[in-house]
Fold this protein.
Amino acid sequence: MTILCDPATRAGQLSPAVGVVGSNVITAATLAEADRLLAADPAELLVVIGAAVDLDEALTFAEALRFERPAVGVVLQREVLEIGTLTQALRAGVREVVARDDLSSLADACARSRALSAQVTGIPQPGTGERRHGQVITVFSAKGGCGKTTLAVNLAAMLAAGGERSVCLVDLDLAFGDVGICLRAEPVRTIVHGLGMLGHVDAAGASSLLTACRPGLSALLAPVEPGDAERVPASLVSELLDVLPTMFDYVVVDTPSAFSEHVLAAMDASHHHVLLTTPDVPALKNLRVTLDMLDLLSYAHDIRSIVLNRSDAKVGLTMDDIQRVVRSDIRAHVPSSRDVPISVNKGNPIVLDLPRHPVSEAISRFAREHVLAEPAVVAAKSKRWFR
Ligand SMILES: Nc1ncnc2c1ncn2[C@@H]1O[C@H](COP(=O)(O)OP(=O)(O)OP(=O)(O)O)[C@@H](O)[C@H]1O
Ligand SMILES: [Mg+2]
């Protein structure tokens, strides 16, 4: 979405230049109205101020916005371009000034502003980069409390590598999701705001639902209001997981501990299934049932990775006992450490907080050896032959 503030311009007149494919333009007759529209949409990133708006008012607006919402770009149109106006505008934080009749310059300025906003927020904006072919990685365990959220959050943070790659972490634990808490991210926009886009989710719509968390790391957070989780249909998850890989290098999905339709939609969209267990009999039994279920649903074996969390817990089971139940390689052993809940309480993933910690090293090694180094293995999306 883009806000176009110009009392003299009829809606739609400038829209093709201001917008990009899939991105809507809403018009505001006054700057006060533009302000209200901005306040109502924390994901808004571009305001175009038309030539009919008073220069001083436009500059005051831009100056305030620069401090309140630095990610939002302001593009200013003027009847004629004068050096004095340009200098004043740049000083006030306006990103570009274009002549009123120069629609191609306006389109270019809007595209540049969106690209800059994408860099500032870490959320890719539609029309500002190449279409990606990202990998979807779903982290699942049928037993609660095994460490799915811990692994998903840390895997996503490790893959983002401080902005080297773009990663979106999706919280599919719709009723009790705590990705937001683990990353200290305010759930202003959540998946529930995507309900109005059902049937026509595009990159612009998807990006408006995301929360920027760290450089390169965005999150699609779970709803916060009680009852909202039930309103989210599995088809919305499928649509989002179709679009997000075109915007990010990696999409990591955290799940609830149940084989819901939403989880199956994520499994369908995934290039990699990461199945988590701990070394105790109930968790191992549930992993065995999960593996049999995935076989029954005809998901490919080679897209699976089994990760043993709290692998060093002395609970009377040997590695042979575990291997006998799992019947396939365990690709990562993540040790137990009180530093994990400490990092959760701090709201900073342990891979970022303590990168040399044995837990961080185990997760980083797994990411390097089985996610980053094996694009060929996970190249094809998982397809069930029948359900
Ligand atoms: N390797 C570990 N060492 C110590 N504590 C851990 C480890 N992994 C996870 N934990 C802790 O165990 C608890 C459960 O972890 P987490 O929330 O990641 O599990 P989950 O599978 O997502 O749970 P749920 O099914 O409720 O969503 C958390 O308090 C977390 O800090
Ligand atoms: Mg969880």
